[in-house]
Amino acid sequence: MDYVAIGQSITFSFVGYSSQTIKVDSRASYTIALVAVSNLMEETVVVGYGRQKSETSRDLLFP
Q1: How many whole angstroms from its chain centre is CA 34?
Q2: Where are the beta strands (DSSP E) in 1-63?
Q3: Cα atoms in the Cβ-side hemisphere of radius 13 Å centred on 16
Q4: % helix, strand, coil for the chain, step of 5
Q5: pTM for the predicted model, two decimal places
Q6: How far apart are CA 36 and CA 4, in angstroms?
Q7: Which of 18, 29, 61, 63 is at 20 to 30 A from 1, Cα to Cα?
Q8: How far apart (Å, rounded) are the C-alpha atoms in residues 25 and 33?
Q9: With contact defined as beta carbons under 8 Å apart, do 23 and 9 qualify?
């Protein structure tokens, strides 16, 4: 396990949340709360694998 020295910083981040950086001190534990950023994800990307006939796909999109 790697350790962080006192005085160094750690940044916590996750997709869709604002990141938070803390400076390490002598505490044994920390409470980290990331805040959701609602306007960060304006688009959705869908990735699919497999095959389907084009006429079947068209019928699903435009019934």
Answers
A1: 11
A2: 9-12, 20-23
A3: 6
A4: 15, 15, 70
A5: 0.54
A6: 27
A7: 18
A8: 18
A9: yes
